[in-house]
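From the shared-data thread, chain only:
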Amino acid sequence: MSMELLAPAGNSAALRAAVQSGADAVYLGADTFGARQSAENFTLDELPQWVDYCHLYGVDVHVTVNTLIKNNELSKLSEYVKHLNNAHVDALIVQDLGAAEIIKNTIPDMTLHASTQMTVTSLEGVKYLENMGFSRVVLARELSKDEIEYICKNAKAEIEVFVHGAICMCYSGQCLMSSILGGRSGNRGRCAQPCRLPYELIEAGQCAGQGHILSPKDMSLINELGTLNKIGVKSLKIEGRLKRAEYVSAVVGIYRKYLDKPGDVTVKDMQELKDAFSRTGFTDGYFKGHLGKAMMSYKMPGNSSDNKFTSDAVLRASENANIRKIPVNIMGTLKSDAPFEVVIYDNDGNCITSVGTLNAEAAVNKPIDETRLREQLLKLGSTPFEAVGAEVYTDRGITIPVKEINAVRRTAVEKLIKKRIERRTGRICGSEILTAHERRKNDIMLTAEVNSEEQLEAALHGGIKCIYAPSRILNKSLVSMAKSMKTELIEKASDIFSGQDITSDAALVSSPAAVYKYSDKRLYGDFRLNVFNSRTAEHFSKLQGITLSPELNLHEIRDILKYTAVSAEIIGYGHLPLMIMRNCPVRAMGKCQKGKQIYTLRDRKNEEFPIMCSDGCRAVLLNSKPLFTADKITDLTDLKINSIRLIFTVEKFSQCGKIIDVYKRALNGEKIEPMRENTFTRGHLYRGVL
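Structure, as tokens:
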């Protein structure tokens, strides 16, 4: 099979294990901007030597730059990627679209891969990124075989999918749970994994189920390699930059085995995968479309294996492992009155010649024959090479010291090593400089996002002039009422792109895929676009407006708006969505709320998190407390933003009306008292994330 096997390398030991076990490429993080900040990672100083090590074996190096970038980090990013370029890494894996533009402008020859943190679930998402210059897209883990196949058959970009390791309950790039609850953002590489904690499913105040309700098993598609190859997947990604070297060795070794010699996976080999790491077994539920309880690890959120590794896996992970050999052909020529000459060439088109310093002489006693000469040439044991063919040419009756033969062979090996790791340094252009924009303090507009007909009606009665609403609640009566009240109804596209028909002239979009799909409409960017810096804001400047990330604090918002003229909105009220899940935790426990809001999750601190139904039977987990800012309204208006959004999710008609009234009075200058202590949150407005 021709698919690339891409292995994790959280440190040098894991990198070595991946290479020696047969990986075609590795992905790793350097000093910063990587989504696994708790991994050991690599310093910029040591990175070049490990890149050379990989390139020697024909292994590509992909470096993660897959976090959201703050404004004050943009100049550092430019310098950082220059170092990566000089280290000759092969590709950068990127989440932040503004960062991608900076990278392309700074090191234009660098290959860009779109991270799974971009939540790409559709061909439209891939097309958008192709137009930006991405050559590969890492798809969301939640896609089925048919969905992946359709994208592969119609995309120009290479498609990479995860095939083994941990999976998140939430779509990657859309999780705010760790961030909002603990200040450690998954979008910044510091997820605290609150999803692995125990919860209770609550119905009408009573426990309807309990366990590690948000903890899925690890995925394994070892039995689907033939299918993945057939449908056109280019790269198979193994998760595990936080795993030990022996784990990397074991998993890569098994996948390498079945890529090289396809066949049914033996019980022994499957057990080796389970022994390396598993959460009570594996799942292929997303790939096969079999969602539900079987995907989950309710009783064991962590490793259920004994971390047993075979002797072969341990050997490949050892410090001096020299298992993987590079096949070469070698030729030696010894002529009278001429120095010994060695030619070595590999299967990648590299060919070098090494010539000695001593001339061959007539033999006084025993001349050197072809057999002895061949024996010396084939002594490649401690090198990375293995001779698969050897030719020797020598005149009769001549000799040369054996140490000369060995010296010429060693020089040939050294030259071939150097040749194999040689890479052309890509162009480096000037760093991008942010241009300041003078923003005026505007009259702030209140907008509302609604999820039910009664919330929409409440927003209309409350005088909100811009309302985001899903198509399912836009009945003729309410649309007519909005028109009569001169209120703009903006149809809300699905949080996770589904290609739905948008019938209105304007849409609230949550993904680049939606921007691509609905480009003929007036578009407003939702917070799920993860606008974290002014460069990303400018990237979406053709939209009517954008909602900034709720992970930003006041200072960071102010800094962004200094350098962009886009119409900017922030969230001022609402139960922030912490997770959006394809495998609904309610249905996985054998229940269904059928579009209503019936169930909550209760944590160890007795906080209850509402669960909402979303498009495509997805589930949205909401924060237990609403964001409330009406009593701090001057802090928001001082930012020179254009609008403040009120998000209504679990609120009834009367609650919506009261909240709208409070925010209107606040904007009119009336002093507002905060909500009762411990009943609300400020989100990240006064803290932010690291």
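The longest strand covers residues 385-394.
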